Amino acid sequence: MAPVYGKPFLCYVIDRLADAGIERVILATGYKHEVIRNWFGSVYRNVEIVYSNESTPLFTGGAILQAAKQINSSDFIVLNGDTLFDIDFRDFYEFHTSKKANLSIALRNVEDTARYGSVSCNPDGRIVAFREKTDSLGAGAINGGIYAINHIWLMGQTLPTAFSFEKELMQPFAGNPGFYGLRFSDYFIDIGVPEDYWRAQREFAALFAPDEFLFLDRDGVLNRHLPGDYVRNWSMWEWIQGALPAMKQLAAGYRRIFLISNQQGVGKGVMSEADLQDIHRRMLGDIQSAGGRLDGIYTCTDLESSNSPNRKPETGMALQAKKDFPEVDFHRSVMVGDDITDMLFAQKARMRAVYLTKNNPVPDAVRDITDLCVTDLSEFATLR
Q1: Model-level pTM?
Q2: Preceding peptide of 313 cis, ω within 30°
Q3: What is the pLDDT of residues 21-78, one digit of tens each?
Q4: Does the annotation count 186 as an active-site position?
Q5: Strand 333-337 vs strand 352-356: parallel, antiparallel, or unpaired?
Q6: How far is CA 245 from CA 57, 203, 261, 276, 285, in A?
Q7: Which residues contact residue 32 at a Cβ distance below 8 angstroms, ignoring those fewer than 6 apart?
Q8: Cα separation values, 225 from 62, 221, 281, 301, 306, Å
Q9: pLDDT of residue 140
Q10: Which domains are present in the chain?
């Protein structure tokens, strides 16, 4: 349930299954199982969700064995909940059944097997050996955490209630008939270590993000922020390096792009509404000349002390954008900004939130409500 770019990691795993046409998933749950059940319920994306909860630890083997009691098919597929391996499930299943295999593993070719250990196969795909992590160096095939299992074979084994599927069943079974591996080179990530968990945030934003609508802050995102002052006229405007090319890239990746900006300088009287409109007219001209676009510009000129419902972190400007463009779906939207108010705005509107660090440390209060951190708008644009 660890969040990755706006939703639990497990959602991405089941999304891949739903896309493949799989209609029923059994979730083997244990600690805090109610959190998972409350999120997914009994149906997720038209996939029936069934639960197999362990009251005491059964380890990987016992959990699979218990869940298998709710399976009626002759063969079934098992996945790890903290690994996403974006294989073609149909190809894998057809390979397994064509071999009349008892157990098949989806293998992933990697350049360095040291973290995972490696798997050795005969030319026909039959698995003959596993090498431990300490013995594994260099390129090779690793266990990708996806298995196809013959139900009758599994239920016919003499197994303890709680056991390790990998160490107590697979490894001793190596070299026996009916044990096969099929290599894939598709996207693979295991979020079991912190560095890969944070890597997933960036990569999923590019690979699996459903965002169609982009909301942008202005100062500090498009133009240089002036601490203690306001961009009061066009002569004070300075584009952030890379922002204009980024707007061109983003125009190709989003259905709608909106500017959402607090501008209390007008409310304070240090600039006029006409000054603000002139700045935005010239800004928009530069964006369009660069090949980008803004579909709407929304500003709140009210003072912070006014508690205006339109001033970020409140969502009034987002609601106005949705009124003007009814197709906007906040669940398929992302807010990009450089301030905690932008992140809170996204949280209240139930959008994803992207924080621009400008190479500065990310405050803990910001990280807790942010789905992704990147240096600047140019780096964010490369993810689309």
Answers
A1: 0.78
A2: yes
A3: 999 999 999 989 999 999 999 999 899 999 999 999 999 999 999 999 999 999 999 9
A4: no
A5: parallel
A6: 53, 21, 21, 23, 14
A7: 1
A8: 57, 8, 19, 17, 23
A9: 87
A10: 3-196 (3.90.550.10), 209-381 (3.40.50.1000)
Q: How many residues does the chain have?
A: 384
Q: What is the pLDDT of residues 291-319, one digit of tens each?
A: 999 999 999 999 999 999 999 999 999 99
**Torsion, CA 23, CA 28, CA 34, CA 35, rounded to 10:** -80
> Is the CB of residue 242 less than 8 Å from the CB of residue 377?
yes
Residue 328 CA to residue 257 CA, distance in Å, equals 10
Choosing from 75, 211, 219, 338, the catalytic residue is: 219
3 state SS of 231: coil
Answer whether residue 355 shows pLDDT above 60.
yes
pLDDT of the residue at 16: 92
Catalytic residue among 75, 190, 217, 342: 217
Banded model confidence at residue 79, pLDDT cuts 50, 70, 90: very high
Could you tell me the CA-to-CA distances from 341 to 303, 307, 344, 373 in Å, in that order?
15, 13, 5, 15
For residues 103 and 126, what is the distance between their CA atoms, to the nearest angstrom? 10
Catalytic residue list contains 217: yes
